[in-house]
Design brief:
Distance between the termini: 24 Å
CATH architecture of the domain at 95-233: 2-Layer Sandwich
CATH superfamily of the domain at 95-233: ATP-grasp fold, B domain
Helix content: 25-40%
Bound molecules: adenosine-5'-diphosphate, magnesium ion
Order of helices and strands: EEEEEHEEEEHEEEEEHHEEEHH
CATH class of the domain at 95-233: Alpha Beta
Structural class: alpha+beta
Strand content: 15-25%
Shape: globular
CATH topology of the domain at 95-233: D-amino Acid Aminotransferase, Chain A, domain 1
Oligomer: single chain
Length: about 290
């Protein structure tokens, strides 16, 4: 059997190059407070990969995407080993557009901090009197540019982002920046409305796009997973305070209460956490999770 090693190994995901594309593998690793926990959250990777698949299918009428298959039997034998089952997505390799396409539907996190200082989020003026976690009148597109490893990403205006894109795609910077902004808002609106009806608030999220060989803009990376988004339970939601995270609340609460744990969690916390991931998947898709 031909073996493969990842061309890239991130905090949570691993990327392999195969003959006719890329295979993105979501591992069972979990990070909290910018640390990777010692424990594996068994099945988390499969939940996230299947969730991305679900959203790619739901949004393909808005924009084409990079997904080729999540069926391991359509991948090289190496990826048919048990450890890759359900966690792998074979994708078209694209020329990535170097912009993190962030969209916010609710005010929280760094956006809330900035709003309290000067009434803006990433340079966008918002109405006065918003409360923490409140729904925005309209979702806003707040792109950032990818920093080199270790640095934090930098928020940019659409025009600044366009200048960065211009370096990779001469003559197309502004065109692509506008286009991915429109797509980002359209995808977010459709999916956030959909999720809300199923009891999950998608407060904000991040998309990445690339270009295929014909020059079409294609949705890439992972989409609308709890790792790339803030998911909140609708039940108990109330503006005016911070919201619990749908998936990581048990982990965060436990870590805060046990500061000397060295990121080693008891099994009970792991079990509760995986149950939340599966619950989110089943609520959103209406299907039983079966990996
Ligand atoms: N279809 C694709 N073709 C090429 N690169 C892709 C594709 N989809 C996602 N990527 C890239 O794969 C990488 C995923 O790495 P990730 O583990 O998220 O780490 P990071 O975001 O810190 O670079 C990102 O650089 C992303 O832009
Ligand atoms: Mg990434």
């Amino acid at each position: 059997m031909k073996t493969y090693s990842p061309v890239k190994s991130g905090k949570v995901r691993e990327i392999y190059e195969v003959e006719d594309g890329l295979i993105m593998v979501a591992t069972d690793r979990v990070s909290a407070f910018d640390h990777i926990l010692k424990n594996k959250i068994t099945k988390k990777g499969a939940v996230l990969t299947q969730m991305s698949k679900f959203w790619f299918d739901l949004t393909k009428d808005i924009v084409p995407n990079h997904m080729l298959t999540v069926d391991n039997s359509e991948m090289p034998a190496f990826f048919q080993q048990e450890e890759f089952r359900g966690k792998s997505m074979k994708c078209k390799k694209l020329t990535m557009i170097p912009m993190e396409c962030i969209v916010r539907g609710y005010i929280t996190g760094s956006g809330w901090e900035s709003y309290q200082k000067d009434g803006t989020v990433c340079g966008i003026k918002l109405p006065a009197g918003l409360k923490e976690s409140e729904k925005l009148p309209e979702p806003i597109f707040t792109p950032s540019t990818k920093a080199e490893i270790g640095d934090h990403d930098e928020n940019v205006s659409l025009e600044e982002g366009a200048k960065v894109l211009e370096k990779t795609f001469p003559g197309h910077g502004l065109e692509y920046a506008k286009k991915v902004g429109e797509l980002t808002l359209a995808i977010y609106k459709k999916c956030a409305d959909y999720a809300l009806k199923r009891g999950i608030i998608i407060a904000d999220t991040k998309f990445e796009f690339g270009l295929d060989e014909a020059g079409n803009i294609v949705l890439a990376d992972e989409v609308l997973t709890p790792d790339s988004s803030r998911f909140w339970p609708l039940k108990g939601y109330e503006a005016g305070k911070g919201q619990p995270s749908y998936d990581k609340q048990f982990v965060r609460d436990w870590l805060k209460a046990n500061p000397n744990s060295d990121y080693n969690l008891p099994q009970e916390v792991i079990d509760k956490t995986i149950a939340k991931y599966i619950e989110a998947y089943e609520k959103l898709t209406g299907e039983k999770f079966s990996f």
